[in-house]
Amino acid sequence: MKAAKRHDRDRRSFILGAGAFAAGAATRFASAARAGETTIYRYKTLDIAEVGGIAYETYFTKFCAEAVITGIFQPLARTVGAPYDSFPLHSLFWAHGGMMGWGTGCGTLIAAGMAVSLITGAAQDGEAIINDVITYYADTELPVYEPAPGKAKAAIRNTSLAGTPLCHISVGKWMKKENVGFSTVERSERCARVSADTAMYTAQLLNEWAERKYKRRNHPFANVINNGITSQTNCSDCHGDDIPDVPGIQ
Known about the structure:
- By secondary structure, this protein is an all-alpha fold.
- The protein has one domain.
- The protein is built from 9 helices and 2 strands.
- It has helices at about 1-35, 50-80, 95-100, 105-120, 125-140, 165-180, 185-210, 220-225, 235-240; strands spanning about 140, 160.
- The protein has a two-stranded antiparallel sheet with strand order 1-2.
- It is globular, with a radius of gyration of 24 Å.
- The chain starts with a helix and ends in an 11-residue tail after the last helix.
- Mean pLDDT is about 85; it is low at about 1-35.
């Protein structure tokens, strides 16, 4: 009988101990989660030319998305330190080629969006900055960036207007104008320069934001207002005259 009571007491102690352990683990996990939510990506104004040079050179080994995040975060790792110095830059590698070669949203914009979101946090300007970067990419004759003398991997003759944030249209329009194939060094050179352009423009807007001088250039969700659905301004590039008719904003 005494042995049975001792067994029950030991069993209750084990259960209570296990419960306390689980509760402690849950608390530690929740604390870690809260700490992750409040990580501060403190920002110092960037040398825009340095950002462009890093992004351009990084492209040739890491491609577009990682090039942009590296161009912005590498200088900040030096001037600010944590958390930039431990950020896994390779986590953006997958976005190259419009997400693993699927030609959707350009990887430069995915990386720019992540950088801006981490730096601005909950600030309302964050989405406006990202929208301005996307609009710049779509509505500017690119590339603008010129590598330092002797640094270019190939000579290119043309710029092109994408009219879209989609990788395959942006690259395809330029390839047609330049009359080169996708696997050519000229096409790589073009995308390296566009990576530099996107990183530099993002840094420019972040600098303005840090100095309290930023004012949005474009209205976020303007295409939803205009077309009644999340969309682009160049629907006819893909749809021709067969643009889907939608009910619009209800």
